[in-house]
Amino acid sequence: MKKLLFTVLCCIPILLSAQSNKYLIKAGQMFDSGNGTFVKGCFILVSGNKIIEVKKEQELTDKERADYTLLDLSGYTVLPGLIDAHTHLLFREELKPHMDYSAQSLLKTLTMEGDAYRAIYGTVRANAYLQEGITAVQDLGNSGQFADIALMNAIDNGLVPGPRMRSSGPGLASEGGQLPGVIYKHRHLADDEYRIVNGRDEIIKAVRENVNQGATVIKIFADNVPNRTSLSVQEMESAVKEAHRYGLRVTAHATDAESIHNAVLAGVDGIEHGYNVQDSTLQLMAKRGVILVPTDGDSTVMANYARIAYPGEDSSADMASYLKRLAKRLNRAIKMGVTIAAGSDDYIDVNLPYGLPSKHTLIGYHEAGVSIPDVLKFATVNAAKQLNWEKRIGIIRKGYLADIIAVDINLENDINSILQVHFVMKDGVIYKGGKPI
């Protein structure tokens, strides 16, 4: 048998590249996202970019033992690559003390950086996400004029390493977008970041523009908080109908009770944030199969936020109260049968390495009372459904793409084990230090 111990992977890149891409992964334990269970004694056969089979040791044939290169991950928990269903890889908001929500960071990005710089910045962040074991993302706007599409294409074409992407292009928003405080004279700046639409004809045209530019999901802004403008139910219905005509899902930024309910009535496939959702809306979401993506963070993210935004103040009680309210909303949604997909909405700089806040989102779900297996399902099989890739990724099963990672062995009992990534495979290719080997 050709044998390759994972502990020496970094030392022999030439050997790896010389061999055919056929791997036999020996897992210490494997998370089965389909059943939400941890299974011991599994061997995963990978050929090319596909998972060929998952077997027990006694089921392996002599030919398989001879033909496949052994990757010994027996000291780790092996699971599907993580999926973040709400990212903004090309946008970073600089947090400053006592800064109210404003357009300052975004205006700086629009007027002093531009799309080319953002694409380069997004490339760095995309690589960091991959190194953290996040092998797929859904990037939802705030990326200038289709710079996210360029990044997605560059990754798909092998120019740069990064997660596989669903990208929306500019989000479709009513007057003003999310640029609060911008005077009328400079309202055109919103057009550099959002696709501003007024009326059903414009929103249909905007969907077609995004589709033509390569968007693989359509994002709409049911509300523009803190701006007062919002899309009507009729406008959102038109966006959904047109996007579905092209086979694309529609997901809606919606934060207040009315905008969430209106978006669900309009037929959207997903709700982003959903902070103030009512029980009646959750019931409708469960009935219609609308996925909720709670972008809640965790105690670490909130603590870092508080230290930067409110220096010298003790805001721990306020942060704890905020997380408690979001936890109640999350558990209500679960109880009512709403499908939950993991999404970080990571764009505010809280002094954490790129990619890490995404995984702190998972820790936050567990802090809210969700079991570790269910949290992992949020970030694998459920998120794959939100990305419309449920038949391709999110589960280690025959015929699925070989997006596989390994973390600390104690994941079953300690969610923080997700922070320690020891192995990353995307599309059957092993990555080490941000590079394919």
Automatic annotation (TrEMBL):
Keywords: Signal. The keyword NAD does not apply. Residues 1-18 form the signal peptide. The keyword Signal applies. GO terms for molecular function: hydrolase activity, acting on carbon-nitrogen (but not peptide) bonds. InterPro entries: Amidohydro-rel, Metal-dep_hydrolase_composite, Metal_Hydrolase, Metallo-dep_Hydrolase, OTAase-like, Pterin-binding_dom. Residues 177-437 form the Pterin-binding domain. Pfam families: Amidohydro_1. This is Pterin-binding domain-containing protein. GO terms for biological process: pteridine-containing compound metabolic process.
